[in-house]
Amino acid sequence: MRWTLEGARSMLNVRAAFQSDHWRTFIDWHTQNEINNAHR
């Protein structure tokens, strides 16, 4: 398996959010984004 730069960057951003105090904010944003995209 090979990582693209975009995929690796996305994974590192998620990991950084998880390891910091921003995890709950990230999950709330991601959930709302998924809801908005589902209702388009």
Architecture overview:
The structure is a single chain. Helices cover about 80% and strands about 0% of the residues. The protein is flat and about 35 Å long. It has helices at about 5-20, 25-40. The mean pLDDT is about 90. It has one domain (about 5-40). It contains two helices and no strands. The protein has about 40 residues and is mostly helical.
Give the tags.
single chain; 2 helices; mainly alpha
Short recap of the structure:
With 40 residues, the protein is mainly α. It is built from two helices and no strands.
Number of strands: 0
Strand content: under 5%
The quaternary state of the protein chains shown equals: single chain
Average the pLDDT over all residues and give the rounded result: 92
Number of discrete helical segments: 2
Using the CA coordinates, give the radius of gyration: 12 Å
Distance between the termini: 33 Å
User: Total domains, how many?
Assistant: 1
- Summarize the main sheet: none
Q: Kindly name the structural category.
A: mainly alpha
Basic shape = flat
Instruction: Work out the helicity level.
Output: over 70%
Low-confidence stretches: none
Q: Secondary-structure element sequence? A: HH
Helix and strand topology:
Layout (H helix, E strand, L loop, with lengths): L4 H15 L3 H16 L2
